[in-house]
């Protein structure tokens, strides 16, 4: 089987479960995983045959994909805001809308004119310029992306899952990016005392009501960690309420909160923060026109 034939075969297999565009994207990632070649390289070698080992690996990968295991978990690789990250079922697969949240933060802080984007070697205490905390860090994608763009910021990430923290620390090491990852149950106010005072708080917390599980794709529900996805039906704003209470104690005056939210809960999140005494609250849509981000200025 040639590279080009392998891609077409796998794409056709996947179209029983995914639309043509998604099938093509997954097939391309699978071919990269199997051959070790980037997409541009194996496209140039479409007429070259797979080795026997590669063809067997392709069939094994196809079987896993047809059980709806995400290609990112099969390959152990996901891309986020210019970084290549390791992922496994202990962490959520980074999403494009989360990249949009990171991009909003980066552009906002650029406008403030802080010299945190300087990539030159700096003294250790230069990180006092800006302090950032990522709550529920998972793979570390948000914290690491922000630190990669702002080397002179000091960045922390916290998570309740030891397995997730192992992934985040591995990603920091693999990308040579220094972020302090801490094990903290953010819903426990006693443990919140372990966290630093910061200028920016960012979070993509669990926000999907359990009742929505039945309408979600199997490749998410059956493979990704439920503790990072779901909240009780009767308290969908659980983590946002905890953040609103935490910020007056640990967010500097004038500090900013950036949140990813459920597309159906934008107005509810805005109301929660306004009722908690925050006057500057902005709701923003993602590229698909859905309410997915909130910025709060203390």
Note down, in words, how this protein is organized.
The protein is built from twelve helices and eleven strands. The protein is α/β, with parallel strands linked by helices and 298 residues long. It has two domains: 3-67; 80-297, Rossmann fold (3-Layer(aba) Sandwich), CATH 3.40.50.150. Strands 5-4-3-6-9-11-10 form a seven-stranded mixed β-sheet, with helices on both faces. A two-stranded antiparallel sheet has the order 1-2. A two-stranded parallel sheet has the order 7-8. The mean pLDDT is 93.
What would the keywords be for this entry?
298 residues, alpha/beta, Rossmann fold, two-stranded antiparallel sheet, 11 strands, methyltransferase, PrmC_N, DNA_methylase_N6_adenine_CS, S-adenosyl-L-methionine
The structural domain count equals 2
Say what oligomer this is: single chain
CATH architecture classification name of the largest domain: 3-Layer(aba) Sandwich
Order of helices and strands: HHHHHEEHEHEHEHEEHEHEHEE
Strand order of the largest sheet: 5-4-3-6-9-11-10
CATH class of the largest domain: Alpha Beta
| Shape annotation | globular
Fourth-level CATH superfamily of the largest domain = Vaccinia Virus protein VP39
Query: What's the CATH topology name of the largest domain?
Result: Rossmann fold
Q: How much of the polypeptide forms β-strand, as a percent range?
A: 15-25%
What is the SS-derived class?
Answer: alpha/beta
Largest sheet entry: 7 strands, mixed
Output the number of helix runs: 12
Radius of gyration: 21 Å
> Uncertain regions: pLDDT < 50 for 5+ in a row?
none
Per DSSP E runs of 2 or more residues, the count of β-strands stands at 11
């Amino acid at each position: 089987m040639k590279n080009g034939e392998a891609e077409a075969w796998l794409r056709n297999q996947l179209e029983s479960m995914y639309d043509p565009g998604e099938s093509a994207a997954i097939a391309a990632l699978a071919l990269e995983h199997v051959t070790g070649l980037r997409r541009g390289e194996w496209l140039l070698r479409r007429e070259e045959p797979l080795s026997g080992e590669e063809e067997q690996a392709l069939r094994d990968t196809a079987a896993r994909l047809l059980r709806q295991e995400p290609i990112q978990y099969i390959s152990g690789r996901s891309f986020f805001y210019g970084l290549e990250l390791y992922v496994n079922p202990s962490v959520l697969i980074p999403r494009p809308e989360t990249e949009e949240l990171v991009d909003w933060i980066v552009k906002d802080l650029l406008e403030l004119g802080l010299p945190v984007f300087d990539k030159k070697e700096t003294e250790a205490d230069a990180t006092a310029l800006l302090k950032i905390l990522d709550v529920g860090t998972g793979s570390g994608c948000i914290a690491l992306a922000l630190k990669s763009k702002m080397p002179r910021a000091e960045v922390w990430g916290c998570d309740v899952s030891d397995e997730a923290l192992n992934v985040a620390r591995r990603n920091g090491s693999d990308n040579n990016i220094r972020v302090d990852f801490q094990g903290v149950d953010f819903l426990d106010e006693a443990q919140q005392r372990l966290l630093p005072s910061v200028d920016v708080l960012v979070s993509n917390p669990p926000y999907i009501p359990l009742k929505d599980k039945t309408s979600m794709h199997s490749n998410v529900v059956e493979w990704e960690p439920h503790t990072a996805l779901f909240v009780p039906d009767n308290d969908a704003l659980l983590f946002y309420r905890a953040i609103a209470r935490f910020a007056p104690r640990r967010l500097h005056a004038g500090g900013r909160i950036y949140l990813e939210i459920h597309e159906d809960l934008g107005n509810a999140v805005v109301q929660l923060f306004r009722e908690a005494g925050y006057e500057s609250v902005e709701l923003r849509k993602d590229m698909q026109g859905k309410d997915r981000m909130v910025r709060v200025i203390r």
